[in-house]
Amino acid sequence: MKIVHSEAHARHDPQFFLMRGIAKASTEQPERAERLLAAASAAGHAVEAPEAFGPGPRAAVHTPEYLRFLETAHAEWQGLGDSAPEIVPNVHPNRYPAGYPASIVGRAGWHMADTACPIGPGTFAAACAAGDVATAAAEHLLDGGDHIYGLCRPPGHHAYADMAGGFCFLNNSAIAAQRLRQAYDRVAILDVDVHHGNGTQGIFWRRSDVLTVSLHADPLHFYPFFWGHAGERGEGDGEGYNLNLPLPLGTGDADWLEALERQAFATIRAFAPGALVVALGLDAFEGDPLRGLAITTPGFAMMGAAIARLGLPTALIQEGGYLAPELGDNLVSFLSGFEGAR
Length: 342
Ligand SMILES: [Zn+2]
Hints:
alpha/beta, Arginase, Chain A, 10 helices, 15% strand, globular, binds zinc ion
């Protein structure tokens, strides 16, 4: 399988992570991409770097204000003096009507949903490179390619049009889907990451041209907590074009695959998209440090094969999946399952 990847991912090397009030090293480390790349290369997949597409693809799904913030925030934050090396917000507008602040501290709270998306000096460059990877994956399909894997880092599916969150800054899967709209009237995004794709849902919430489907650990007990419930179906033109399939914590291969085939695929087939974007998180793995679901390494091959049998031009976009010894094996398992069923 053709793989697109940018070494610029390493410019984003987040240090801060807050879990249950305890500050620790971020789970979203550059080593993730290095391990995924090494495993895919060792399995014989060909790797290419993306071209630089400029600001157009990210501006097609993110607001100008947010992109300006991401680009300039770190320098401004450093200018405050007596500030940490990374931007971590400490105040948020929350649920009440609010005004856009001038202060960089206020804007950090406005544009960052939580403390799991610290912005360092290279974060914007790395996020833009991941957006280029996603765009290149979409371009491959637009050029007549059948399927491709974009090894994006940082991940993207928690990023809204104007808000970072959960390790994510630019929504790579949304960027790919939006790009595919150039040739296809309808595009579906299937999110198999253990976490709900809340940013992706938010971006396409009022649209009927991009179907968003997410299988994930039930947010009643798992990040992103506030979104990902079954009752969220979209609004306005988008009503009925978002499907959430929250699953009990610890759900394994058989029940996961049944939800995929019986509910997710039924909705995707009824939508009849021209192309598919898979938000390919590998953190539903039973041994992932974040421990939400219990997919096995062979289970990822079954997942890949089932998705391949939909028969759609498919861009696989890397989302989560953290440092377990089997991380690379899980990717290779998914890719071989996919190719074997194509
Ligand atoms: Zn995840």
